């Protein structure tokens, strides 16, 4: 079976919650809370105890929060 190496900024690259939290500069616990309450980046549930994020979904979530002033900032 051939393995494909994805570049670090490939939108389809899968990241575990620790890697996604590091990219976002948030804690793993914050990601877990967002998954439970909603409001965080889209995620993929691999199994009962395994979650992954795509680099593209995390970057899209970041870009959706780009604002010009504080009154435009979303609450998460």
Residue runs with pLDDT of under 50 for 5 or more positions: none
Largest sheet: spatial strand order: 1-3-2
Q: What shape does the CA trace take?
A: globular
- Helical content (DSSP H or I, runs of 4+): 25-40%
Number of strands: 3
The CATH class of the domain at 14-66 is identified as Mainly Alpha
Give the SSE string.
EHHEEH
Q: What number is the mean pLDDT?
A: 90
Major sheet summary line: 3 strands, antiparallel
Structural class: alpha+beta
How does CATH name the architecture of the domain at 14-66? Orthogonal Bundle
Stated plainly, the CATH topology of the domain at 14-66 is called Arc Repressor Mutant, subunit A
Distance between the termini: 42 Å
Can you put this structure into words, describing what you see?
This protein is an alpha+beta fold and 76 residues long. It has a domain at 14-66: Winged helix-like DNA-binding domain superfamily/Winged helix DNA-binding domain (Arc Repressor Mutant, subunit A, Orthogonal Bundle). Helix content is 37%, strand content 14%. It is built from three helices and three strands, in the order βααββα. It has a three-stranded antiparallel sheet with strand order 1-3-2. The mean pLDDT is 90. It holds the Pfam family HTH_17.
Give a topology summary.
Layout: E1 14-15, H1 17-24, H2 28-37, E2 44-47, E3 50-54, H3 55-64
Antiparallel strand pairs: 1-3, 2-3
Compact overview of the structure:
The protein is α+β, with helices and mostly antiparallel strands. The chain has helices spanning 17-24, 28-37, 55-64; strands spanning 14-15, 44-47, 50-54.
Key traits:
alpha+beta; Arc Repressor Mutant, subunit A; single chain; 3 helices
